[in-house]
Design a protein that fits this description.
Organism: Verticiella sediminum
Order of helices and strands: HHHHHHHEEEEEHEEEHHEEHHHH
Radius of gyration: 21 Å
Largest sheet: 4 strands, mixed
Shape: globular
Structural class: alpha+beta
Bound molecules: flavin-adenine dinucleotide
GO molecular function: acyl-CoA dehydrogenase activity; flavin adenine dinucleotide binding
Distance between the termini: 45 Å
Pfam family, one: Acyl-CoA_dh_1
Family: Belongs to the acyl-CoA dehydrogenase family.
CATH class of the largest domain: Mainly Alpha
Number of helices: 14
Strand order of the largest sheet: 1-4-5-8
Keywords: FAD, Flavoprotein
Helix content: 40-55%
CATH topology of the largest domain: Butyryl-CoA Dehydrogenase, subunit A, domain 3
Amino acid sequence: MTPTQDDLYPDIRAALRDLCAGFDSAYWQKIEEQNAFPEAFVNALTGAGWLSALIPEEYGGPGLPLLAASVIMEEINRNGGNSGACHGQMYIMGCLLRHGSPEQKQRYLPGIASGELRMQSMAVTEPTTGTDTTKLKTVAERRGDKYVVNGQKVWISRVQHSDLMLLLARTTPLAEVKRKSEGLSVFIVDLRDAIGRGLSVRPIRNMVNHETNELFFDNLEIPAENLIGEEGKGLKYILDGLNAERILIAAECIGDGYWFTERAARYATERRVFDRPIGQNQGIQFPISRAYVNIEAASLMRVKAAELFDAGKPCGGQANMAKLLAADASWEAANACLQTHGGFGFAAEYDIERKFRETRLYQVAPISTNLILSFVSEHILGMPRSF
Ligand SMILES: Cc1cc2nc3c(=O)[nH]c(=O)nc-3n(C[C@H](O)[C@H](O)[C@H](O)COP(=O)(O)OP(=O)(O)OC[C@H]3O[C@@H](n4cnc5c(N)ncnc54)[C@H](O)[C@@H]3O)c2cc1C
């Protein structure tokens, strides 16, 4: 039986499979060894127009539904790739699309659609405040026709491979706002002007081959025209984009999950120990099968969430639940796959240890599992607010 949702966008699936076939295991291993950015892969995706999936036709994209975009992300990971290198280019522009002025959209979106402009960084997280976003300390102070930014961010991905970055900073002190979610604003930072002129970037070595950085703002000047929407409403604008992000990340996890279970089932069938395939033992079969069941279920929730999103209906609950179910299922599948491969699972040439590390990240970023459970507790089950 093929996965339940394989009949969704079969043409997109086939095209992505073909594209990914040009970036085989040897390619990803070389990139990992060199700690490099998968430039050729991202260029191929961009050239074929996949990363502009969500940009409307009037700005040069195909204006596909989010469900179709989720299939693109799923197929990248299902075919051995890592969407983490490029998923930002697909969804970060959503904030500009929904809340930017007509001039801003005209100025940036066609370039993002063609890939000439890379907008794949979003700077929210800070070292001292973490998940408690409303307490973030980076400030943007209006001075004439500029904002002057001071502060620090951490874990900001793909900055060295972006032209534009979204920045969330406080424009009204926390003590002066009625609600803590007010007084934060979103800006477009042109990294080509900013780096070395008020913005410094320090890469963070980390568990996966993922370009992520500490950022230091020291009187960085941003033209006032780079403010998105109204001053003080930035957190709402960022939150508006999170459902799309959750659904796309869920799809990546689902792609990983299918990759792990397909690999594990194949190896369990081929590998002979004690004169029989190891997959003949139910102790080997069941963890792989259970992970598969959970991936299928997560995929259904992803489809439900995406359909609601595409219909313009509230989907926060489904988007968050899809992300949690998918991240758990892919991690379960990763463990089953590694265990099935025994010692060989640890050998880089099998790709399993790489994908294992990559899929582990989804339990923490872009949102940690606990924060999703907190959302469900408070907003779906109506339990008391905990923070
Ligand atoms: C590789 C990588 C790339 C990233 N890329 C980006 C990026 O591009 N842009 C960006 O802005 N951020 C990025 N992040 C940051 C990421 O979103 C955060 O790491 C994540 O949201 C968790 O925040 P934190 O690390 O500050 O953890 P903390 O807030 O310090 O929390 C630590 C742990 O405690 C738990 N916790 C905290 N408070 C509670 C509570 N009240 N109840 C229960 N549990 C709680 C959290 O769930 C977490 O597990 C990235 C992170 C990584 C690792």
